[in-house]
Amino acid sequence: HGAMWIPLVFLFFHRMVERGWGRRAFSNAALCGLSVGISLLSGHHQAPLFTGVALGGVFLYFLLIGKGTRLRLCALVGVAVLFAALSGALQWLPALEYGSRAYRWVETPQPVRFGETVPYLAQYNYGIFPLSLLGVLFPKAHLTNDPFLGFVCLSFAFFAVATGWSDRRVRIYAAVAVGALAYAAGHYSLFHGLLYAVTPFLDKARSPGHAIFVFQFAALVLAARGIDAYLGPQQPGWRRWRDHIVRALVGIGLLSWALLFWLYLNLKFETNPGDHVILSSLVAFLLAALLYGFHQGHLTARAARGERHAQRIEHPGRR
Question: pTM to 2 decimals?
């Protein structure tokens, strides 16, 4: 799937930005473009297009803040675009040839051709419905695309934003996550309509809900940053946020159980009642206990991460 390449795309992009001029910067730019091109070989343009929009937003951010490096950054992005075009040519060249002759039915009375804009109303039912935002916490609580992250990832992502806002990358990926979620909401979001109107070829990606993978990617980057911060050296002001997260986990877990118990008493259950909610609530309780035990000093960082102690094996005749 084209979406699976997004971590490599952003990894090489950040390395490209940080390496300055020289062979290492250009090699990372080439690898960034190569990753985009390979994602095109998945056979569908939608995921690579959403990745490109997110990457374009991050590029514009670095372009605005880098007054003395704008020319270098544009040159490196040019290299990335070149390698993306070369590596993805096996897909996009035949697609252009086919698209110029194809008719596309998009829930409109007449089909559209390649050079025609897909009507905005054709995307009306393909975004993330607001009710599906519950699916960020609870599995299968969605109507269209699955936005699931779970209590563990969302808690650490929130901790990263709350305690590491001074870190530029935290701000970048928080903005990417919010922007992707706003775009995936489709017609419920003004942001989606704005990008649809001004971004070339974005009308060809007619399922905005599929952009939820960009939100999940950015949230997982923040979660990794949050885990490192939580298990690393603690700052004086962080204890308050740790307490808030633990209380929120316990509160949401208790509320979920109370609502399910009320449904049980009122005979509202159907097949397999509330299994996913119950399991998610148990995860919330276990995570709250783990975090509480860690910052109370009852668990070491190694134990909290679930690492096994390495055993040193001595061989005869060796020191």
Answer: 0.86
